[in-house]
Amino acid sequence: MHVIERLELLLKEAQQAIQSAGNARALEEVRVKYLGKSGLVTEVLKGLSQIAPETRPQVGKASNDVKNRITELLELKQEGFESKGGSELPLGWDPTLPGRRQPMGKMHPLTRVQQEICGIFKSFGFDQVEGSDVETDYYNFQALNVPPDHPARDAQDTFYLQKGLLLRTHMSPIQVRVMEKLKPPFKFVAPGKVYRHEAIDATHHHIFHQVEGVLVDKGIHFGHLKGILDNWVKKFFGSKVETRFRPSFFPFTEPSAEVDISCVFCQGKGCRICKQSGWVEMMGCGMIHPVVFENCRIDPNEWTGFAFGMGVERLTMFKYDIDDIRLFYQNDLRFLKQF
Hints:
This protein is an alpha+beta fold.
């Protein structure tokens, strides 16, 4: 029998078998018989190489036509089953195979903690703002009262780009840009990535996350700053955690302070994490410097305010007892599945 005649006969047999199929399982058996890996039509296609070259194109076209026609008939029959409320399994599915459990995605611990940080401040009435990772020297340094000879400008700390641009080293540039546009009073937090030219080890990374905040209004003083941050710490770590403020220096705030919290691991008794002191450093803060206000066209004689900044990685490490910052960036599912 000629190959093309054989194909025509297979098409007629397949048509009858499809018409006789009473359910989706029987229809799937027909598909496998004719179009499966070892199906009757498939075997014809596999044998094209043994056919005379001059008739091969004609036979190949006939084989594809038969395969396409059988596929159309199978799909029409399947649609008929579905329209009558029958099986909705698509062709090619074996309903006897066990199901495949799809793993559920989880939020990265840094994202989880960053949202928690901002969520608490939002409950205090703060807005949330964002900005570009690429900044100018003016907004990253000059507008924040960082003099030209300040160590933070050193190439060892900052990733400088072309045309006077750089990767922001802190979130404070966003504070300046927002204060330029808004009229006081206002309060907002700014979360995002920052970049510094640092050697990577267990506690340092050249990419990390910060959340910085600003509050500006009339009559704001350091007591307001202490109250806001102390309340935030107790909501984030628990009501038993205490805070203390130590004098410090930042070019963009005056006075400035470092905020410590009682060690969450030993409850202030002393351990290796807090170096037996009972306290761990948590964030920096201070009253916004008058020069910064003037650069933002805000009258420091009429308005006062405070700013603060905290590292998300540091808070996450304390919250979940993680001892190596590199774990956040290695995409190790054994680590990430714990959150």
